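User: Can you help me understand a structure? I only have the sequence.
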Amino acid sequence: MPEFLNHPPIETATDPVHSAADVGQRWRALMGQLGFGERLIWFAFVGPDRRFIKALSQLEIGPSPTVVPVRRMMSALHDVLDGFSEGTTVAALITRPGRGNAITRGDEKWAAFITEAAAEFGVPIEPI
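Assistant: Let's start by predicting it. Here is the structure, written out as tokens:
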């Protein structure tokens, strides 16, 4: 069975995160077999215990990568993180229409914008 069709049980969504592969598995458990009709950046917080905090948020994005919405998001996340315990990080997931599609250049550009804006605003992030 192709990997994108085999999803971890939802109960594993808050298992500890110790690697990029763990972050991917937590997102896969949370998203299940959803198909996406729009482009979004999902984000969640990973607590100092390395577990996803049970709250998801999203930012609508367009088809062409642009840095402005990502910078706004990181500025807001920087402020929000002040209310969390030290050691809390942000996990981000980029979704778009389709299922099991390969990573595109646009996906890579969005990820680069997220990484750059996180560094600019001092927001600790997990691998995208």
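Now, to help you interpret it: The CA atoms of residues 35 and 98 lie 6 Å apart. The beta strands are 40-46, 52-60, 89-95. Let me know which part you'd like to focus on.
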